[in-house]
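Final paragraph of the annual report: two paired records, presented back to back.
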Amino acid sequence: MLSYGELNRRANQLAHRLIGLGVEPGDRVALDLPRGADLLIAIVGVLKSGAAYLPLDEGLTAERRQWLLADSGAKLSVDAAWLATPGTWPEESPAVAGDAESVAYLMYTSGSTGEPKGVLAPHRGITRLVCGNRYAAFQADDRIAWAANPAFDASTLEIWGALAHGASLVAIDKDTLLSAEALGARLQRDRITILWLTAGLFQRHARGLGAALSGLRYLMVGGDVVDPRVAAQVRRDNPPAHLLNCYGPTETTTFAATHEIGAEAETAASLPIGKPIGNTRIYILDGDGQLAPLGVAGEIHIGGAGVARGYLNRPELTAERFIAAARSCRAGRTRRRKARRRRRWRRSGASCWGWS
């Protein structure tokens, strides 16, 4: 068990150590650690040094690990040996300048549609995800499951949903996560109140988790298409207080839209992705950048505080996919509406990320 006081002290010591080794604001530091207290200390310590963290998947091949370290330009790689002995580094927070635009972490897309891309996520994206988000009210007495792979951006929700509200973060190991029986027992034993699952695991475990689901305040599901039949079954048999379908690409900091699944799941052929979360805007635009009429297919354009800073070392792709909001979201029926929308976006300093 790790208290907030110990987390702060040990993270400060690591931050001072990193700074002493030449880590500067804007650098990237790789974290080669499993889910647990050491990884949490490392994440907070890296941020306190002003750098951004790059979490590495435990299951990476040696070749893929070396590629990520080289492509990311990571200045250092922190593993368990780093945290075995805290040493005599100061326990006070280092004086490091930073702001909401500073990069908090670097995560790579899967590469399923080409070479993996490193996404630079800023602090403002995390803040908007877990504070004033309009889809979940995190509380200090929550016990949030840390079940996502640290190299997957759902872990951003879990980690910072807890830390930003003084809640408890409970690490769930991979073997437990893959067993419905073991996971259900763990949810009940540790009195978990918030759980995020991939759509695949949700559909695989829904029946086996049984009554453990009804003890949750929030069950969030995403990462793929959610089967409405399974959602309807959960709502009938063991409903959590809130069952959410969550949508969002890595480029927009975990979630961009959520939908609270209700009675419509009983008859729906599919579930909607829902409405934008706090400080987020979503438009469906046609090829000319105009709002697509209802029922007409178009491209999803997502704007607001969650939009990443771009892709690392990919300026051309960044320019193609991360578009100035005033240009890409110029839709409107009148010039007055268009001008008003442009002024709002310019004042917010927002950009827009488009995906078809």
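The closing record of the year follows.
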Amino acid sequence: MDSTTSTHAYRLSPATRAYRPHRVVVLALDGLLPFELGIPHRIFGRAKDAEGRRLYEVVTCSIRPPGPVETDGDFAVLVENGPQALATADTVVVPASYELGPVFEEGVLTDELAAALAHIRPGTRLVSICTGGYVLAAAGYLDGRPAAMHWAEAEHFQERFPQIRVDADVLFVDDGDVLTSAGVAAGIDLCLHLVRRDHGAGVANEVARRTVVPPHRDGGQAQYIHRPVPEPQLATTTAARAWALARLHEPIQLRDMADQESMSVRTFTRRFREEVGVSPGQWLTQQRVERARHLLESSDLSIDQVARDSGFGTAQSMRQHLQAALGVTPTAYRRTFRSLAHRS
């Protein structure tokens, strides 16, 4: 499975079964970060099928009647929809805010925010970016669930909501109908993940290309946490990763990768985890799963050949890895997303 997600059963949204723009409603709260507010609009808004039809409809609402919403900058944004728009959502996204007040300090919703969230229909997919997770937590949506949070707020978040299994290492957590991400740019990773989950790697990769971001970032938050006494970065594992990516179809040993950097296996493994956030073995599996997804969607190769070309060796091995990562077999994945690509 992706190191950036928690284990979940792979679910296909209604948008994967028939063409209908999936309605995403973004909740703008006072003190919002404009960058995070724009992430859902940019990622979901750029997802299209081959005929140019938008796969998502994205609208913004506030917890009050239409009007200005303050940002963390020296300007406000004019939001044209009130909280009633939440009742129309297939997915609700809650970006971060620096003015959460009692939600942040005490873990409780204000009456105004509670009334707004009451518009959300049961079964609606819920997504938070960074401290937007405090809103979902205070509303009880994360009780007993795993959740991601920015590493700088993770301890505070866990103290406020001890019933939540907080993970400060990953970029995002997919728990099926509720998804949470770490800070700021991790919202991009999460939104791309949702596009990939809904419509396959091909559509998500195209959105990523147009946005000029990687379709999938390696590792988790560990690589971004400031260390009081950082080790000199005189050596990296970049060359080894590039070497491995060009040879995913071949057997690759840890010793082979370490040799590319002239490091001992122990030093290479430590450096790799510091830079990428996961072990070399986990990273290789991630890359092979992504290669397999791409080939299943874009080629007519047999399942056995896809397994060989992606480095799994046998169809059985690939089936086990895709089942663990996506909760679906290679045949089912191809049937769903290749048919979507042709229908699109």
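The chain has 15 helices and ten strands. This concludes the annual technical report; the extension proposal builds directly on these records.
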